[in-house]
Batch of 2 targets.
Target 1
Amino acid sequence: MPLSRKTASLFQRRSANGHEKVIWASLLSCALISILTTVGIIVVLLGNAVYSPGKSTAFFEEVSVWEFFTDTHWKPAERHSGTELSDSATGKPAGHFGILPLLSGTMMVALVGSMVGVPIGLGAAIYLSEYASPKERDVLKPVLEILAGIPTVVYGFFGLHFITPWILQPVLKHVFGIEIGVFNVTSAGIVVGIMVTPMIASLSEDVLRSVPRSLREAAYALGSTRFDVSMRVVVPAALSGILAAFLLAFSRAIGETMAVTIAGGHKIMLTANPLAEVQTMTAYMVHQSFGDNSASSIQYKSIYAVGLALFSMTLVINIASQWVLRRFREVYQ
Amino acid sequence: MVAIREISRPSASLNAMSTPAGPVLRVPPAVAGVNRDQDMSSHADAINARRMNFYYGENQVLFDVSLTVPERSVTALIGPSGCGKSTFLRTLNRMNDLIEGTRCTGELLVQGQNIMDPSVDVVLLRKHVGMVFQKSTPFPKSIFENVAYGPRVAGEKNRAVLAELVESCLRKAALWEEVRDRLNDSAMALSGGQQQRLCIARTLATNPQIILMDEPASALDPASTARIEDLIGELCSQYTIVIVTHNMQQASRVSHQTAFFFEGRLIEVGPTTRIFTSPAQKKTQDYITGRFG
Ligand SMILES: Nc1ncnc2c1ncn2[C@@H]1O[C@H](COP(=O)(O)OP(=O)(O)OP(=O)(O)O)[C@@H](O)[C@H]1O
Ligand SMILES: [Mg+2]
């Protein structure tokens, strides 16, 4: 029946649908690549740190989780894989793999970084959102973006060759009579703080600006100055969003690598002294991967254990930040 | 069109047609506390606006507006949407200063002082001339902190003084009984009507002389609206109130004086009873009988 055939062809799939499929598939694979990368990273981390299916052993098959989290020393050089140098009493390999010294280094740098980045970033955000004219904002925002785009290795040398010798050392020496080394937590923290400032500023500015204008008007109508409106109404109303920004910045500071490797130093020790030289978790991973240990050595595998710890920390913080932000959005949207 | 209106508002339209000079609207009884026949001539002027012009950029929206508001009275501003009621109201506490590119000319005396003068401290002015908005705008803080906001900004720190002030303002705003047991709960959890009364209490706490209200009840249910109207009746013995409303019945119930705006001009102002029964201007009559807007 020619008529029915013609009708059917009206509804037949055409080549355009084929194109659609190609587009759909390529976009989907772009999305999948990012997911697969994450999965791949997790598999590699777990495979080397927790459980290795082949004949090689994973890090935590040789070092107990308990030791990893409670030992206050990290001295991988003294431990060798296998049993030849094992402690005869326990049968365990000698040496120390306690994450605490590295963790303290990382946390101190991130805390100093937050102490620098949070007030400056929040101040900049408040200025941009509440005080700046549209023209000023047009100038300041790109400047912040430039700051965010500087390679982190540049920040590292900025800390090492400028902050430490030209600011920190003279100030501490002349004001407090304290001499400090070339590598120290404070310099590393300061540059990390400067690095996260643009991020805090732009994330916080977004949440400040999403506080409804009606709330500001109500505050002005009650006889508030601009400062009152900013500090008593807008910032408190945006607090959870700002907190989310801080968390993301903190997580970024924890993961920061180049600047802290250059400015922070190499000494692995458990300390709370912000003027000491420390090695952070990330810096350790860099050093160890450039070292001459073979890939099957426990030292080399410790990179994955530290990496897994780092990954878990930033993951938890990022999830927390998402959760806080969602609560903020619920109030105003 | 006309026919439908006649059905929906039979008394108003019929009155308007038969006797243009006679009463055009059946004026509902005033709320308690508002004596519409009261002679206000003994009251000093709270607000005295002279030949005010207002511009958003190049766009002029107020033309030569002159209006006098007696102390301790209620003035209703009515008129079709976009005629400049809110704009005029917001010039009275210089709220329009917050909008970039606005300009205002003319003379505006508040309690005898020209507030258009650049030397005027707008922060002090706004404590003196409070404002309640159409959309209730509680701060995301506790009920207590919302009311205590103004005094705190003004520097009051003493908790006992604040507590006393919060209670008296909540009482004046007829909200105290409903919230006395949960002053520390978030204000966001209150109902719309309660939030609006909270905003009124919050305004009272800055101890203003004049309260500006921009359609304070237009987002509320009839019961909450009635409470706000009653509240206005109570407050007008102490405060000067200027209220914008689209509700003719409301304007006639709560105000001593009514001002009709049209396309940026003040067409007519006079005692509320007269405006609603025998307006002098044809436009006023058309508007209040519902022939447009
Ligand atoms: N922020 C603004 N920028 C520019 N023009 C504005 C602004 N606000 C109001 N206008 C204009 O000014 C005129 C008067 O507006 P206004 O809000 O005063 O009217 P209104 O009488 O309060 O109306 P409604 O009854 O709808 O609230 C309108 O034409 C409006 O478009
Ligand atoms: Mg309006």
Note: The domain at 105-281+315-327 of chain A is CATH 1.10.3720.10 (MetI-like fold).
Target 2
Amino acid sequence: MILFALTLFAAAPKAAPADAWAEAMPITKVETPAKVDDQVGGMTFLDDGRLAVAFHRGEVFIREKDGTWNQFAEGLHEPLGIIQDGKNALIVMQRPELTRLEDTTGKGKANVYRTLWDGFGMSGNYHEFAFGPARGPDGALYVALNLASAGDGVFKEIRGTWSEIGKANREQMTAGKGFKGALAGRMYSRVPYRGCVMRIPNDGKGPAELYATGFRSPDGIGFDADGRLMVNDNQGDWRGSSPLHFVTKGSFNGHPASLVWTPGWNQGDPLELPIETLEKMRSQPGGIFIHVDLSNSPTQPAVFPAQWGPLAKQVVFGEMNVARLVRFAGEEVQGVYQGAMFPFLDTKELRNGNHRLAFSPEGALLVGKTHLSWAGNNGIVQINAPQKLPLLIERVHLLKQGFEVHFTEPVNGDTLQPIVKRFRYKYHAIYGSPKIDTDDLPTTPSLSADGRTLTLPLTEIREGFIHEIRFAKTACGQDGRPLLGPVAYYQVVKQAP
Amino acid sequence: MLPLRWILCLSALGFALPSQAQDGKLLYEQNCAACHLPDQMVVGPSLIEITKLYQKKPKEFLQWANKPQKKRPGVIDMPSMAHLGDANLLAIRDYMIKASAGLKEKPAVTKDPFERVARRPEVQRIFMPDVGPAAIAVALPGDLSYCFDAGDCRLRTIWRGDFINGWLYWKSNGKATGVIMGKVLWHLPEDTTLPAAKFHGYELNDAGIPTFSYERQGAQFEETIEPAGKNLVRRFKVTTAQPLVLTIDNDTQASAGTRQGNKLTLTPEQAKSFTLTVTLS
């Protein structure tokens, strides 16, 4: 290891221009079908390269290679995910059910709307969104069910068995004048499997099984390049900042409300359990979307294809509130998957509302937008795989005592000026959390001879903490190109052995 | 071993500390602009309106931003901005006042920009009034529409007139039901004594009319609902090993089976194909 001796020509550092991201990866608009409320609920590329999109009001359209749109289905109830299922069929998750849409007449339009699975409860509460499906390497489909919100009550008539567990009884939970929102719990699960991830094997034919509990508003569900199930969640009660969970069977992922659906549950109202008990039960997120700094409402994950060079197999997530995407690069440490998050395409030109992500066969990233009256947007944008990536932090590797930061190209060490901090969030019923236990961590960095790996020795690594590694806004490569997204947030679940 | 110039650079970085006020414009764009436009109510009120309310009330502005209340009907809850800190919030307030100066309020969008007449027949799943949450609204050719409940697998509501207006639901996040745009002629209330049913979906015929498939107590139902003059006819094909017993109301006539009061009993053979006609005014 040589200390900075190799920075041969250090161009005077200047901050990256405001639109450096958009310059490196131009963002273009994709025309959406005319007269359609183009908030995107689901988006996927078909085997033949055409794009299938499910929109807010229940239409499914297919975009031909020449850019024309043909309607495939309509009338769905808030579809929030779509995948292909064979030649003439798509599977969508809509608010009430997992549905297979099939064209059996060859007219290019689905005539069969087959219910694959509707064995979950609906209280009628607006917040009970249904996300997915994600197809696992095991051929099963995985869906995630949103909790209800105390922003409103439930319908008089519900689907599924009412759970009596909770401070308010059914009458007090019913929307209208009698609704006792204060007793509801900020987010609640009074009908089956709200807040759970469900597994529906055999391509959705079932039988469905409860896979994991502990979610709040899990809009992003997908598999990574190695077949790990990723589910993210939205900051709120029990979510100090939005987490990314690598979900295993039977795990409890932090939000207590759905624990009531654990088979044999006999511990009463999970919201009343001591925090220490819940803390022991919960599995830790492998990554955290830092509130405000990275993402307030993370959305669908998508895996970078080969066309993205060093980013291939990493994951990119959408974000609703801010004009930005988030990138994640993970690693296995002592049997636990964890890693670092980075800002990606952090440019106003992207605009916000980034909800559904899909890579085309050519490697272009398509981003479909929505808002559902919250902060957000509408329409679809496209970002082609760049000929040459901008200079980025490629990944961060945890050492026994410190971190190794890998860059996509040689960096100018003099310009980096790394600052390392750690902090964490509270685990509690209150909505969100400030950063707590923040500490600056002194380090003496050293750059590898090839200029691509920076080692940051630290005296101590703490489990359960986010370690923030921030470089100067003027950090640049040896060719003078700016380092884009000059910050990494590594969530240490397990220390390196 | 760290080069000296590196150490010097650290102090020149200018990362603002959280307690210091940052640039109000940038903070507004990062934290508020998604919901507040200068001159139009979108998710939240315009900066013109906010300025009117809080130009002379910084303390109250902070109160709101730290702990927003529910004030206007039909809008979402504003999330708390307490994490920004008072100094930053006041910088945002200054910017909001500046940015709205001299602007005129544009009217908020109050009408569905995608409003259209029903393509009859048309199927639309959406929350509907007075039924379960898994509702399916269907517009039939002519002037009849109905609501089939995929939860209890029953025809629940029939109306004459236009179809539905879903704008209240679609413009927000689901906190409203579709509105029936006609006169309700027939409706079944919830029946908690009904044995559970399993919904299997629907298939559209060439004309676009759905046939629902479902199962109750081992009997496999296929039901197609169509207009018949001013009435509505429900065509059934039921596969069952046992006699089929259905509860029907006074406005409903069966093409087969034995009726005793509101109870209709069909043999497995009769159940294979029969109709129920709902007489409508």
Note: Chain A is about 5% helix and 35% strand.
